[in-house]
Design goal:
TIM Barrel
Length: 256
């Protein structure tokens, strides 16, 4: 993994992205830490042209986005247009809202919609990925629902954005999932998994939890991962301190 492949998911900093002025200051701080790329998500209204100018000013690239899941399924052409405006190749279906995982037809419809949307993006030279949580690891058709979702879609139309925390939370092995999705894993959400003394799982800075990062990164690299994206859904303190600690750990321990 190269340092230039390390990005931060801006959703981590969502409380500091409500206005264009907030976004400008947040991107300045992200670049000052050393990040060279961001995943666009969780921000308030801003024109793509203005966002592009702010990214360029701070030496940042938009490596990927998260887009509205319903819009991806129903109107992928609008996603294609937004990604073009951001000069961005990758996006992710962020969360299966409205999907009843006890109903096989719901999962079949989701798979069909994502396959169709992914084909539309692929025709435009773009890539649709699926961002997992833990719900997709429920047993389904002899494996997991996530296995089924990938099996029911064309590997060229739906790729993966594996989230390490949620794989672990759901009882899976993040490195094993990275290996399983060889050739289908352009994006990795790096999110550490820790426990409190009250025996509760919590989000943690990279290197502050119990995930085996050398193994995960090696597996992701072997599977062709292009972007290693730091995310922390909630932070005990200042989120900027959290993304700084994660970056420093990655730079010192994982960058080859």
């Amino acid at each position: 993994m190269k340092l230039s492949q390390v990005a931060v998911q801006l959703y981590t900093l969502r409380d500091f992205l409500k206005t264009p002025a907030d976004i400008a200051e947040t991107l300045r701080k992200v670049a000052a830490i050393g990040y060279q790329a961001v995943q666009v998500s969780g921000m308030g209204p801003i024109a793509e042209e203005e966002l592009n100018a702010l990214l360029e000013k701070n030496g940042l690239v938009c490596c990927a986005t998260h887009e509205n899941g319903d819009l991806i399924r129903a109107e992928p052409a609008k996603i294609v247009d937004r990604l073009r405006k951001l000069n961005c190749k990758y996006t992710a279906y962020p969360f299966p809202a409205g999907v009843d995982w006890t109903q096989p037809d719901h999962l079949d419809r989701l798979a069909a919609d994502l396959d169709r949307a992914g084909a539309a993006l692929r025709a435009a030279g773009q890539v649709l990925t699926y961002h997992n949580h833990a719900i997709e690891l429920i047993p389904f058709a002899g494996k997991t629902a996530l296995d089924y979702l990938y099996a029911q879609t064309d590997p060229q139309n739906l790729l993966a954005e594996i989230d390490t925390y949620w794989i672990q939370y759901g009882g899976g092995n993040p490195a094993a999932w990275c290996r399983k999705l060889k050739g289908r894993l352009p994006l990795l959400h790096m999110k550490d998994y820790a426990f409190t003394t009250a025996d509760k799982p919590v989000f943690a800075e990279i290197g502050k939890g119990n995930l085996n990062w050398p193994e995960i990164v090696a597996a992701a690299e072997a599977s062709g991962c292009e972007w290693f994206i730091v995310e922390q859904d909630s932070c005990a303190g200042d989120p900027f301190d959290s993304i700084r600690l994660s970056f420093q750990y990655i730079k010192a321990n994982l960058v080859g």
